[in-house]
Amino acid sequence: MATMTETPTLDMMTDVRRSQLAETWKRLRKNKLALAGLILLLFLVLVAIFADLIAPYPFDKQNYDAVLQKPSWEHLMGTDEYGRDILSRVIHGSRISLRVGFISLTAGALVGCILGAIAGYFGGRTDNLIMRANDILNGIPRIVLAIAIASAFKPGLTSALVAIAVSSVPNFARVVRAATMTVRDQEYVEASRSLGASHARIIVSHIFPNILAPIIVQATLGIGTAILLCASLSFLGLGVQPPIPEWGAMLSSARSFMRDYPYMVIAPGLAIMLTVLALNLFGDGLRDALDPKLKK
Amino acid sequence: MSDDKLLEIKDLSIHYFTEEGIVRAVNNVQLSLRRGETLGLVGETGAGKTTTALGIMGLVPDPPGRVVSGEILFGGRDLLRLNKGQMRRHRGKDISMIFQDPMTSLNPIMTMGDQIAEVIRLHEKLSRADANRKAAQVLEMVGIPAQRMNEYPHQFSGGMKQRVVIAIALACNPQLIIADEPTTALDVTIQAQVLELMSQLQSELHTSMLIITHDLGVVADSCQSVAIMYAGRIVESGRIEDIYEDTKHPYTKGLFSSLPSLSTKVKRLKPILGLMPDPANLPAGCPFHPRCDSCMPICTELDPQDTGLGNGHMVRCHLYGQHDAGEDLA
Amino acid sequence: MLRYIAKRLLTMIPVLIGISFIIFVLMYFTPGDPAEMLLGDLATPEQVDALREELGLNDGFFQRYFNYMKGLLKGDLGKSYVSKMPVWDEIATRLPVTARVAFLVAIFAVLIGIPIGILSAVRQYSFIDSITRVFALLGITMPSFWLALLLVLLFSVQLGWLPPSGLYGPIYYIMPILSISAVSIATITRTARSSMLEVIRQDYVRTARAKGQYERVVLFRHALLNAMIPILTIIGIQFAGGLGGAVVNEQVFAIPGLGKLMVDAIKARNYPLIQGSVLVLAVLQSVVNLVVDILYAFVDPRIRSQYSRKVGKKAPKLAVAAAAASDEAAATTLEGGDI
What we know:
The structure holds three protein chains of three kinds. Chain A is mainly alpha-helical. Chain A has 13 helices and no strands. By secondary structure, chain B is of the alpha/beta class. Chain B is 30% helix and 23% strand. Chain B has helices at 49-57, 84-90, 102-105, 112-123, 128-141, 158-170, 188-205, 216-222, 240-245, 250-257; strands at 5-18, 21-34, 38-42, 65-74, 77-78, 95-98, 176-180, 208-213, 225-230, 233-239, 307-308, 314-315. In chain B, a hairpin with a 2-residue loop joins β1 and β2. Chain C is mainly alpha-helical. Chain C has two domains: 2-73, no CATH class; 88-335, MetI-like (MetI-like fold), CATH 1.10.3720.10. Chain C has helices at residues 2-29, 34-39, 45-55, 61-73, 87-122, 127-141, 144-158, 170-200, 203-210, 215-253, 258-267, 271-299, 301-308, 314-334. The two termini of chain C are 32 Å apart. The relative contact order of chain C is 0.13. Classes of the chains: A mainly alpha, B alpha/beta, C mainly alpha. Chains in contact: A-C, B-C.
């Protein structure tokens, strides 16, 4: 170790990271549940991409000769009150949910990471300010916050996106802040600080790569939460509006017919559950794989 | 002779059954300890010392660990045949253990006094007040003012915490104390204090002690006999003067020559080359043979048996076996 | 201890001011004219303008914020645009319903989640553990309102055992509590399990065993108490989850609670009522957060010593570390459970 006093070069660091990645993948591969989650997730993404090809009917094709049909070979999951094929709508719904989950979470994560990194890195008054703002957002139950934000816009995809993105910021800020604080005082950060690197550079090229693991885990699980939130908002009529085939919105309109046509509430709910399940299985596996000491 | 044996371990094997395979942590270990005696169990990290100690305490984590074979005779009774309740009554009362890391061995949310009184109340029929009084006495005995009873671990330094750990171990006047690397986690200056405290208390209370360490200096200071452990086996054991002056096993010799000495001037310390084998994947034959200077063909094939050299000096090496003609090599 | 509580109470004030400000800003920038909505399509521009004047909607941002804050300090949340009743009166009839549901959910979730989580940890890899983990995963992934619909289908439509909606007696609480608490039970179980698993491996638990302590006491006195910190964090977060769940599921079960009031108010652009509901929910949550913080200090002397008296330089650092640790525990177990 005595020969390691010189600052590790960038090449060495990327090498280390690459082998960490390989190591993580090796551990992940052993975890059957995580692998199942990953496969399910890939399947859902493919379904979303090729929704037009897979869906047996266009999602908005009304057919007044076949309203409220029970599941049959023609309509595997039955039809709704406008005679639209529920399976096709559920398939198209994956596009909406995955997109909302992914976009809103990326936006929220970006803001949260920046705020968290700044708070954790600089500490002191900056930290205090950011974390108090965080406390404020945390003081409102998340769905209530999302509802309040969504209500400030016209109900729709955008309002749901913004509401979910903003309400996911505090979580990220917290995770990233805690992670940054543990990395901040490590020798390699000290070293580059003593070499005169700027704060921004240190955060981006030294701190960030080393706290990527919790961020990735948080993001994977966060997409699931975002999808659930989106469904809840739409279910309340504050998010995505019909006729867009969002799962929560579908459940909301299926409610009125539930007593006589219970099959209508099965498929969309199952779709939400499977998607969130896939993300959770994969996210949990990723956490174990990235941090083996947690699993022991 | 056998009457004054407090602890006798016969043929003890403890394995961990993990997903990656069977880890043979302790293999056919023989050990004995007389009343009032201090025995040093020496070996590298991973040699199976702590597992042996946990085996005596009945605290091998199960799963994945299991005692596969052997007997642990304590005062003539086989501890391995006791049921859970009987074993529990022994722990803390007749046999107690001092753990390696004082920083993590104490419950962070209980006061020091409560942690000492806990073991007293478990094994002695005392009222809460009497137990607290006794806890205060024990605390004073290890050199901590009794006023500090109501403080929490985070208010104590490492050395002070280890004193409390020792106080817990001594509280019920056990016949045997197992000290697992009691000073490794401490500063050098504190180490000496703690060791001195331990040997002073031991001589006052006439307790037997099993000290687990990788530090031959500690052994020389405080033990009457030694057992050297390698890859889950006792490779050499005996009275301290026999081991130090009439060293037999190549591993023990290696240990000594890797130590700096004050009396003889050595240009360069001689480390034992290589690493200890993975206990999940031990080499065939004698587990030390890949690192042994005196390796013979038989060593790669056959695991050696214990050989008595008289006076309680035992060695486990083909160089000294009855069937070998390797005596002249030594 | 009292000092600590006082200090925490003081920190609540800026948080509440911040919350009220955020809500005000959101409502201020909301598109759509409440006056127009109230009067309907047939109203003349003069009528609309008169109503805007009456409601104070023609004032500038600061004037409106000033009026709003002045009201708040006096405990006046304004008047509902629709019913013209004081907002507080409307909320006062609804708040107990939602609060009762949320507290029952929290208690139910704690009583079920913690023991199951402990059992699952103590018997790791056993059959019970596997079943627990499967159900916990399902609980976290299932939208609570969907579970509510399924429960209605089963117990009301199919079996006819339970009333599908309303809140007229104890029996009416069963399905709302079951559906809302599923997520909380699952999350608390998972946290209790992982926290217990971590603590069981600690050296001090082994020390307790080495003392000859009974296994039961080792588990409860030594392990569980230490495992409580992350569990407490999660219980606080789950209370928020219960409140949120109540807000959503009040729609399913037609429960006349604060959530239904709020959602209806949003659809009617009834700002004072929205502001009031969100604020009251936030206050409720903040109080629960405060209680959780105080409970931390009860469990953990490291946090307690930071506040109860002046000690050396070491203690606050430790407490910060402990707080950070619980923070992290909260964050990692947060997702999936905070709806």
